[in-house]
């Protein structure tokens, strides 16, 4: 996702400096070309050689500038993105004031690249009026701040000063390289499988993993949307809002509440076609049921049809096994449920349940767009871009 993107990671003096190694590793796995510069405070915690070993680039820091070898604040400022993590209070306040008291600060001021900072410091230092004012000033001037987390800090104080989770920092880095075509738009994505109760220990469900809906939520977030993921799968440390459901009734209730002010609904959830005609508030005993047991079922409610009156754009997902009837079924779904698009997903070996890849035919009333087999992350970005044209 970050292939050949040039990223400068600035590491400040903080006890969380060691997490910068994990950041470098993850950025490189995503294809980025990473250089590192260390503040004078960071030099008290670590040796430049450790970062040089994992980046394959010289580290820029006090005492290491070499203009002949292009190790300078001017050369290192020529990047696609600057990430400061962890960012100290001293760096935050110096950056806001334009203070060039070190090679570290000179590099920041010399660059016009987008900038992301992830503060990590004592909460009282971050809550000081000068820091609060300067963080607000930086935000207003386009700097993205990844908010610190509340935890017990190294000084034993409990407060909002811990470095944000690495995954959340990476979300913001990825987002910085996307066109924010959904900025100001609210997008609802549903995913996972419904679980319909039989008795206290048994239920009807399906094999949906929720991976496609998670990839879609990430994609719309990268493109600037205000995302709400409604999923049966629980996720931690997401940069956007999410809520959970178990059964179809809970799913429909959440959808109705969220769709009131949304711009787009992407219904990727796998809803059970049938539910029990009667469910039991106790465990059915095998000894009483006997060797054969007939479970009486009835058709489940149609969630998408129940949301017809909401004015937001709607995209449905159609899962099929039979290639011969799949396309006609998807076209009928498009018309019958008054959708703006249908994502036809024909299950094959390479895109089976729980796989990391998918293949989608994006169908609207005007045209079809075949998205050939690819990772679910890449397919999701392509779907989101097509959705922007609806």
TrEMBL record:
CTP binds at residues 273, 283, 317, 337. Its cofactor is Mg(2+); FMN. The keyword Oxidoreductase does not apply. It catalyses: (R)-4'-phosphopantothenate + L-cysteine + CTP = N-[(R)-4-phosphopantothenoyl]-L-cysteine + CMP + diphosphate + H(+); N-[(R)-4-phosphopantothenoyl]-L-cysteine + H(+) = (R)-4'-phosphopantetheine + CO2. Residues 187-390 are annotated as: Phosphopantothenate--cysteine ligase. Pfam families: DFP, Flavoprotein. Residues 1-186 are annotated as: Phosphopantothenoylcysteine decarboxylase. Binds 1 FMN per subunit. The keyword RNA-binding does not apply. Pathway: Cofactor biosynthesis; coenzyme A biosynthesis; CoA from (R)-pantothenate: step 2/5; Cofactor biosynthesis; coenzyme A biosynthesis; CoA from (R)-pantothenate: step 3/5. The active site is at residue 155. GO terms for biological process: coenzyme A biosynthetic process; pantothenate catabolic process. Its EC number is 4.1.1.36, 6.3.2.5. Coiled coil: none annotated. Keywords: Decarboxylase, Flavoprotein, FMN, Ligase, Lyase, Magnesium, Metal-binding, Multifunctional enzyme. Residues 5-150 form the Flavoprotein domain. Residues 183-387 form the DNA/pantothenate metabolism flavoprotein C-terminal domain. In the N-terminal section; belongs to the HFCD (homo-oligomeric flavin containing Cys decarboxylase) superfamily. In the C-terminal section; belongs to the PPC synthetase family. Catalyzes two steps in the biosynthesis of coenzyme A. In the first step cysteine is conjugated to 4'-phosphopantothenate to form 4-phosphopantothenoylcysteine, in the latter compound is decarboxylated to form 4'-phosphopantotheine. This is Coenzyme A biosynthesis bifunctional protein CoaBC. It comes from Campylobacter pinnipediorum subsp. caledonicus. The lineage of its organism: Bacteria, Pseudomonadati, Campylobacterota, Epsilonproteobacteria, Campylobacterales. The gene is dfp.
């Amino acid at each position: 996702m970050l292939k050949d993107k040039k990223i400068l990671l600035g590491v400040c003096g903080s006890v969380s400096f060691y997490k910068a190694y994990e950041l470098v590793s993850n950025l490189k796995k995503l294809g980025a070309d990473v250089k590192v510069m260390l503040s004078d405070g960071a030099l008290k915690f670590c040796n430049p050689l450790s970062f040089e070993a994992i980046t394959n680039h010289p580290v820029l820091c006090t005492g290491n500038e070499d203009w002949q070898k292009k190790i300078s604040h001017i050369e290192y400022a020529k990047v696609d993105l600057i990430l400061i993590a962890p960012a100290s209070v001293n760096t935050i306040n110096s950056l806001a004031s334009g203070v060039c008291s070190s090679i570290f600060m000179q590099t920041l001021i010399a660059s016009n690249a987008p900038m992301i900072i992830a503060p990590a410091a004592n909460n009282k230092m971050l809550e000081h009026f000068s820091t609060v004012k300067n963080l607000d000033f930086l935000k207003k001037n386009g700097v993205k701040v990844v908010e610190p987390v509340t935890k017990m800090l190294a000084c034993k104080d409990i407060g909002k000063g811990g470095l944000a989770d690495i995954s959340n920092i990476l979300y913001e880095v990825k987002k910085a390289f996307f066109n924010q075509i959904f900025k100001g738009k609210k997008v609802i994505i549903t995913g996972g499988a419904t679980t319909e109760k039989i008795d206290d220990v048994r239920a009807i469900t399906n094999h949906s993993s929720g991976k496609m809906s998670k990839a879609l939520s990430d994609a719309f977030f990268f493109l600037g949307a205000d995302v709400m993921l409604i999923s049966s799968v629980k996720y931690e440390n997401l940069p956007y809002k999410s809520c959970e459901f178990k059964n179809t009734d809970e799913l429909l209730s959440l959808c109705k509440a969220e769709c009131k002010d949304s711009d787009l609904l992407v219904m990727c959830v796998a809803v059970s076609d049938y539910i029990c005609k009667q469910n039991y508030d106790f465990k059915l005993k095998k000894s009483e049921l006997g060797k054969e047991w007939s479970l009486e079922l009835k058709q489940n409610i149609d969630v998408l049809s129940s949301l017809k009156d909401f004015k937001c754009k709607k995209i449905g997902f159609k899962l099929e096994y039979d290639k011969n009837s799949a396309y006609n079924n998807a076209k009928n779904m498009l018309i019958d449920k008054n959708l703006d698009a249908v994502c036809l997903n024909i299950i094959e070996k390479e895109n089976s349940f729980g796989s990391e890849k998918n293949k989608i035919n994006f169908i609207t009333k005007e045209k079809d767009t075949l998205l050939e087999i690819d990772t679910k992350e890449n397919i999701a970005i392509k779907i989101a871009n097509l959705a922007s044209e609806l």
